[in-house]
Amino acid sequence: MTAMTSPASSSHQGWFARTEAWLDQRGKGAWIAAMVLGFVFFWPIGLALLFYMIWSKRMFNKSCRTHSRKPWARHGMSAMKPSGNSAFDAYKEDTLRRLEQEQNDFETFLQRLRDAKDKAEFDEFMDERSAAPEADESAEEAEAAAKAH
């Protein structure tokens, strides 16, 4: 027996731990019923139970997690297994290789596009920077001419 199921260990647990274990044994419905009853009799208790259920992830355990992850994992793993049909397996292997090559080509294209954009922005910055001193010099000349008149 484990420490959680032995009767001797239950006397060492506090009332909160015993209540939590009792509700866990009965499932998510018991937690929801306790929360609803808490709201009916004294709303802060219901609110505290709701926050505790969300914080301890009791609302999202088992049923939600297992249904959403198992089908994805099952389909993902079966895609790599050979089907037994050699023509289909050859086609699948060729298609996967072609898709990987297209992905690599596309990533290379995106990198070249980013590099070209960076270079264009840098060139524009350098052009603006070199034009700024010329504008300052012409402004100083215009100011000096205005003072002379």
Structural description of this entry:
The protein is 82% helix and 0% strand. With 149 residues, the protein is mostly helical. The longest helix has 63 residues, at 86-148. It starts with 6 loop residues before the first helix and ends with a helix.
Straight-line distance between termini: 105 Å
How much of the sequence lies in strands comes to under 5%
**Uncertain spans, ≥5 residues at pLDDT below 50?**
63-68
| DSSP strand count | 0
Order of helices and strands: HHHHHH
Determine the mean pLDDT: 77
Radius of gyration, in angstroms, nearest whole number: 35 Å
Task: State the major sheet.
Answer: none
Q: Given the C-alpha coordinates, what overall shape results? A: flat
Overall structural class, as computed from helix and strand content, comes to mainly alpha
Helical content class: over 70%
SS field, number of helical segments = 6
